[in-house]
User: Fold these one by one.
Assistant:
Number 1:
Amino acid sequence: MSLENTVRKAAKLSGDLGIRTLDLQANIAALAERVVEQAETVERIGTDADRLERDQQNVSVAAREAKEKASAAHDVIDDSTRRLSVANANVVQAAGEALARAAKTTHAKRNKPADDNERVLRSHLAKTDLGPSGAVVGSTRG
């Protein structure tokens, strides 16, 4: 091989090497862009994961507070129901006693049999689903 051919071959290889180097630089630049984009995506995912964790903790706290409030409300309702039941029983008992006194007074004034007054009293008590003691009779109410 002659010196001239060697120089030509070296020049051609040098040109090919330059082109390949430029291609490699372009590939490296594109790879660098993709790595930056992926790093930004990973950072956004981390930020979103942190936000989701905080949101989950907030939901957990809110659920616990709601459960506590519901339990307290349930206790208040139970207590109110018990008090209302006692008050209702007292009213029915007082009404029964008043009717009995009225029946005695009416019986004494009109000289009517006491059985009629007792029947009226029992009829009124039966309409309220409550017995003479104020206890619920024949009903599913508590």
Number 2:
Amino acid sequence: MTPAETPKLIYPLAFEALILGFLVIAGGLWLGAMGNAYGIFSIFGASVLILLKIRNVSTRVTEEGVSQLTFRGRVHLSWSEVTQVTRTPLSFTLAGAERRLVVSVEEFADSAAAISYMESHLPSKLRSN
């Protein structure tokens, strides 16, 4: 497959979720300033959701492998390093000797094509078909 055929993320939806998260944080800051404990909880919850969404939005699936932005910077897992795959209807968890990446297939413009692309690049012993 050429790079043009690699799965594409749905950026508008992801960025809308990030903007919503930032609005929740802003509301939480306002509630916190008013002495309301719910403000602190909303800030914490929205921060966690934003961090998870950034991981999903930063996922890159290429001919070489999968990479994501994490707390430790961008982490890459090549297809040849994958030793275990866990599949759910919404995600692929790819595990190697040193790292594990969760790829949310619902974030791609064509989920079925993303799944097919990843399956075709996995080591042959790990493919589902």
